[in-house]
């Protein structure tokens, strides 16, 4: 109706502006009225006259609001139905004075709450005309503390990398938890060695050439620990040997002849092991041996030689020199008798000595002698 009480528009009707009728029987007649909050409308319905009025009556307030179930993060409420002259369409739920939701039923679960927190609730009813009731009684709900009893999942794909002589680095895939993983526990040979909030870890101060078995678990804030990850077995690397053996000691010479000298000494020590000894003659390496003695041969008679010995390990580390000794070979003493004289005119002489001494006059060669070259001598 307009301000003077005239209906401005009626859906599904025809007429002259003051009288309206629907196009078919039982057709709903909907009028849009403007003016004061309430107007009276005369309508002729199916052959009778009646007085209709708009719905301006709010429902009664819902009663007996109460909490039914409360967890650390939710609260379930229930109440008695409100009454209305036409009918209640829905209920509005208020938490701490703010509307949080609506429902057509007599119960409601409010979720996403915080543990150990107090909340105040009340409910109102609303009818189809939009009239809202007064509030129900207020209920105070306190959520309990969160108690987490669910363990995280096990960490996955544990692997070892960056292995050295004294350390092993580990990495794994993150575990999952209903609240959150707080840390990871690292176990070595079934003994807990450390924890970390990361998904990587470096285990240090290990022994070289040693095998270790690792697995990892996850722990949440409540202390729930997961099952173990896969196990990885890994060995540290061999420590490079940079330590030289000690010097051999007690070097001495025995069994000296005109062309050989026998040497002996006391063993050197090494952190891993001595593999050989190097024999030096006059500052130059003459030979090597795996034993504690050595015979140097092919020497000159009546000649002085200087010796020392060093030790060498598998890694090639060489020790300092042993004590040094000076040794003189003996004079050559010929103890071989000459052969019988023969019918010949000349013989050869070597190194100032005749190979047929009788023919050359009892070790006296004739002619000009040149060392190490054959010389002619006259038979006597």
Shape: rod-shaped
Amino-to-carboxy terminus distance: 173 Å
What would you say the CATH architecture of the largest domain is? Sandwich
What share of residues is helical?
A: under 10%
Can you describe what's shown?
Strand 23 and strand 24 (284-289) form a beta hairpin. This protein is mainly beta and 380 residues long. It is rod-shaped, with a radius of gyration of 58 Å. It contains no helices and 30 strands. The protein has strands at 9-11, 14-15, 20-21, 30-32, 40-45, 48-53, 63-70, 74-80, 88-95, 98-103, 107-111, 118-127, 139-142, 156-161, 168-173, 181-188, 191-196, 200-203, 211-220, 232-235, 249-254, 260-266, 274-281, 284-289, 293-297, 304-313, 325-328, 346-350, 353-354, 375-378. The protein has five domains: 9-53, no CATH class; 63-142, Sandwich (Immunoglobulin-like); 156-235, Immunoglobulin-like (Sandwich), CATH 2.60.40; 249-328, Immunoglobulins (Immunoglobulin-like), CATH 2.60.40.10; 335-380, no CATH class.
Offer a concise description of the structure.
The chain is mainly beta and 380 residues long.
How are the SSEs ordered, and which strands pair?
Blueprint: E1 9-11, E2 14-15, E3 20-21, E4 30-32, E5 40-45, E6 48-53, E7 63-70, E8 74-80, E9 88-95, E10 98-103, E11 107-111, E12 118-127, E13 139-142, E14 156-161, E15 168-173, E16 181-188, E17 191-196, E18 200-203, E19 211-220, E20 232-235, E21 249-254, E22 260-266, E23 274-281, E24 284-289, E25 293-297, E26 304-313, E27 325-328, E28 346-350, E29 353-354, E30 375-378
Antiparallel strand pairs: 1-4, 2-3, 5-6, 7-8, 8-11, 9-10, 9-12, 12-13, 14-15, 15-18, 16-17, 16-19, 19-20, 21-22, 22-25, 23-24, 23-26, 26-27, 28-29, 28-30
């Amino acid at each position: 109706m307009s301000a003077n009480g005239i209906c401005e528009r009626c859906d599904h009707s025809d007429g002259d502006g003051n009288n309206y009728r629907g196009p078919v029987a039982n057709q709903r007649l909907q009028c849009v009225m403007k003016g004061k909050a309430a107007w009276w409308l005369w309508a002729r319905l199916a052959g009778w006259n009646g007085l209709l009025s708009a719905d301006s009556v709010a429902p009664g307030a819902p009663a007996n609001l109460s909490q039914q179930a409360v967890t650390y993060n939710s609260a379930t409420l229930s109440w008695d139905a409100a009454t209305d002259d036409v009918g209640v369409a829905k209920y509005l739920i208020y938490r701490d004075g703010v509307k949080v939701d609506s429902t057509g039923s007599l119960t409601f679960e409010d979720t996403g709450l915080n543990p150990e927190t107090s909340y105040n609730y009340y409910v109102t009813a609303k009818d189809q005309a939009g009239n809202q009731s007064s509030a129900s009684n207020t209920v105070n709900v306190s959520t309990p503390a969160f108690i987490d009893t669910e363990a995280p999942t096990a960490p996955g794909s544990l692997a070892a990398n960056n292995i050295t002589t004294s350390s092993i680095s580990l990495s794994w895939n993150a575990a999952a938890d209903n609240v959150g993983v707080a840390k990871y526990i690292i176990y070595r040979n079934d003994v807990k060695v450390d924890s970390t909030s990361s998904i990587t870890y470096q285990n240090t101060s290990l022994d070289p050439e040693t095998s270790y078995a690792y697995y990892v678990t996850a722990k949440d804030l409540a202390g729930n620990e997961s099952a173990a990850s896969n196990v990885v077995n890994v060995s540290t690397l061999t420590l490079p040997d940079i330590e030289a053996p000690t010097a051999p000691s007690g070097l001495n010479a025995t069994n000296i002849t005109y062309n050989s000298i026998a040497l002996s000494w006391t063993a050197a020590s090494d952190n891993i092991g001595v593999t050989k000894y190097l024999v030096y003659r006059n500052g130059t390496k003459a030979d090597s041996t795996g034993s504690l003695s050595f015979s140097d041969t092919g020497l000159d008679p009546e000649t002085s030689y200087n010796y020392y010995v060093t030790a060498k390990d598998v890694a090639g580390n060489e020790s300092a020199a042993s004590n040094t000794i000076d040794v003189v070979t003996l004079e050559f003493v010929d103890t071989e008798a000459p052969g019988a004289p023969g019918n010949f005119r000349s013989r050869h002489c070597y190194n100032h000595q005749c190979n047929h001494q009788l023919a050359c006059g009892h070790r006296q060669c004739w002619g000009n002698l040149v060392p190490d070259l054959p010389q002619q001598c006259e038979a006597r």
